[in-house]
Amino acid sequence: MHVNGATHVMTGDPSAATLATFYAMGVRNFDYRGAFESLYRQATVPRPEGLQDGGCPGQCVGQRPNLAQYLGSHYAANDVCHCWGGAAETLEDSVADYSLGQWAKALGRTKEAAELSARGEYWRNVFNPATGYTQARNVDGSWVTPFDPASDRGFAQGSAAAYTWMVPQDVSGLASAMGGKATAAARLDGFFHDTGGNWQLEGGGPLKYDPTNEPDIHAPWLYNELGQPWKTQETVRQLAETVYTTGPSGLPGNDDLGTMSAWYVFAALGVYPRTPGSGELLLSSPLFPKAVVRSGSGAVLTITASGAGKYIQDVRRGGHPQRDWKLDPSFVRSGGTLDFRLSPTPTGWGG
User: On the chain, which terminus has fewer CB atoms closer than 10 Å, C or N?
Assistant: First the structure.
């Protein structure tokens, strides 16, 4: 809902991912057990609205379109899914189900946690090893052809090249499917640069990173888990300082209820949510010497940065060395201090 009106949804089930993340980050001032029950039913009980095409593509009526087919095939079939794009729907629902699975685990719902966590891996069913990209499939199991990674066939407001990275819940699994972390990192390099190694962060076409929409805006942070955190630091900083500007056209695209603005705020703080359904935060280099964030629960997060440059020399959490590229959920739930020392050149921190 937005301004007391139904927004339906473009693809996937964002309510599940959002509320599961709220819970993981410590929010408790809502009927979280009732909310989980409602979202679990939505994810497991097919409804007739899921077979309606009203509003498609765009704001399709069914929150879980053709759920019966999805539960049977373990992917949204592009030819019968009653959704904007079968490949996009599968990726979105995989994230939503993973999130619900994490929530179920936290609530002690062991059976539901196992069921939903397994569904969080359904993204694998639309990753085609022959092309190396996420690709739409038909209900008979065949791949939708002809395939072009620059095409949006089977996707929603984005190309196969952009959507392929949309597996934040299983970055290591995606890297393995691509041939390993080094291969995945090299592909990510090509996603952000032209053939000459120059930055290409906007207007590069459907084979390049698109900062104006949601499917790939988390991609700069993936280098952390691929073993090259310094590339997250330089890519995030480059985006914050060149793609985002001041003035009426300061955002790279439609703010989409604050999404683009939120990306910049996280980039400026040097932290970013690792994946929906989790309270973990990924680290990059802050833009400001000091920032204080106060949560509704009373937690205070204080982030400082000293030194010049865009690379992390080291980080101390509560006065103790922070050597990992991610923070456990206790930081966002309970608060604390993060003190960064920055460097003008890449370092081995977090690698």
Answer: N
